[in-house]
Amino acid sequence: MADTLSTVPAPPDLSPPDLSSWSCPLPLRDHPRVVMGHGGGGVMSAELIENLFLPAFGGAPADGLGDSAVLDLGGARLAFSTDSYVVRPLFFPGGSIGDLAVNGTVNDLAMSGARPAVLSCAVILEEGVETAVVGRIAQAMGDAARAAGVRIVTGDTKVVESGHGDGVYINTAGIGLVPPGIDIGPHRARPGDVVIVSGGIGLHGVAIMSMREGLEFGVEIASDSAPLGGLVQALLAAVPGVHALRDPTRGGLAASVNEIAAASGTGVVLQEGAVPVPPEVANACSVLGLDPLYVANEGKLVAFVARPDAEAALAALRAHPLGADATVIGECVGEHPGMVVARTTFGGTRVVDLPLGEQLPRIC
Amino acid sequence: MADTLSTVPAPPDLSPPDLSSWSCPLPLRDHPRVVMGHGGGGVMSAELIENLFLPAFGGAPADGLGDSAVLDLGGARLAFSTDSYVVRPLFFPGGSIGDLAVNGTVNDLAMSGARPAVLSCAVILEEGVETAVVGRIAQAMGDAARAAGVRIVTGDTKVVESGHGDGVYINTAGIGLVPPGIDIGPHRARPGDVVIVSGGIGLHGVAIMSMREGLEFGVEIASDSAPLGGLVQALLAAVPGVHALRDPTRGGLAASVNEIAAASGTGVVLQEGAVPVPPEVANACSVLGLDPLYVANEGKLVAFVARPDAEAALAALRAHPLGADATVIGECVGEHPGMVVARTTFGGTRVVDLPLGEQLPRIC
Fold it and tell me: Which segment of the chain is annotated as a signal peptide (chains A, B) (predicted)?
């Protein structure tokens, strides 16, 4: 979807809404049991991680929680990331759990500026799943790895009894190499940064939801599952000083932008009318009652760059097939630190908060 | 359990049994559906990996499938490994799924000679599991990581609906640094090598099985779950030229020795009477009808070293608390390449083959 913003927009009118009395609407701290929302990539996921895992593991890293950890090991600067994939159905328009498991981890590595190099593959199979299904998924993983330029070098296979899994769960972890001079992280966004998205949002989530619910919207909506390593390298070649990158998967663009706002302590203002929403996504979202800002993507990125770099960043993204529809959707401000607001097309302002739980469970 | 072999045994009498007509007793190639045995770490697991995953991923590495992949990246020589943990019950005498998930991957890294450095942690939680259970497991992971000298640096949390998991599944992947000059791999074993095990076998598997079946054997049998990085570094300091290392987990000592025999094309003769089996394990195995050679361990290693290095290797292992009961259990021979046989205490010979499927499902 092409947008009409070919240049960086003028700073929007900023009269922030009164947010002083806003607070989390639900009491979440005392969940005695895990609920689906804990896996949604929103507030509840963050609570589980921050209150339970991080203290046990020895605290959060000083530079915040990115999509990858970046560390120096044996003289190399490495990015290291992991994700488990529990998407259902296993096959959907535009992809499968197999290519998702490769692209998802490749993209997490790429968001630290790394060149993805190798992946691991660990599967948990449910007793009774057809071996032909496992074979198709393995083939999709191999094909996706070759397309992304990475090798799957180590793996593991476990089987659980029927009724204790859901066909196939896949974990991939990955290692990438961060080139010298690259320093990308959610904490590096700052007031004045321009927010860019690489293309139309919401395709992956709507594709899964349509398939799962047996809905049709006139045209088949295909997932945007794609490896973003090449797009990121093209962007970094033009703008080595990119501040922050995210691939907006679970929780969608809203979650990614909120995480960067929170980690950096900057406010973000999105221009709602500038966010590229493909017509089929807009149509499906209106039927399903979803907000496209919260719907998962698997082949898009959001970039925070200093304003003087914005034109070069846009040009570099648009010159790549996976970034042809890149566009500016907002900017960072000094007001309301850590909070994201959207200017609506009618001139109003609304808070775009981190989702609580999940709109669409088991999307990836 | 101390053994009585303080020196390397003389070569055993080798008149190999007639094995020319031996073949796999069950037709396995045409499983249309996954069965529990595909996750047992034996013949069926190998078939799934070799016939299905490896062709899709682009073939096996030239140096065989070790517990870790070893690769050069950015000038560093890295070991990279992954395992998913689906053990039940989640807590058992001597440990939990949490410390198992740390020790298991730390040990896989250590078996390539690497110093384990960092881990990822990805959990798949089942809706409804108590958050306090998740908290105890996270704490066990953090404690185990500190004990092993590794950091958990990146993670992921997914939730699946009740009835599609089993409380908690954990994947860990890990990266270690392989010191210069170390070249350890299953393909490097050769005739004349001595086979050493670091201590009494079978404790982990028997601990899990006893707990699961509600059996008692007079004394509580605790898992041997432990991190082996320090033990391996002590061994390598004494004998840098160790040929092959494995931690005999799923499939036990029999599977580990078979994998090394197959990868190296050497024959292996084990002295059954020399294999250290703690009395409580022997007792439990006789009640449960298990062969201790096939029972999982989580804190033991098997080492293949050249005969001139055997005394130094034994001394180094025995000087470490986790290797105090190290002992020689066999040797590599030129006969029956790729096959493992055991000399029984009565002077007979039996084939110790790779297990087909699982004796004990979901042991790790």
Answer: none
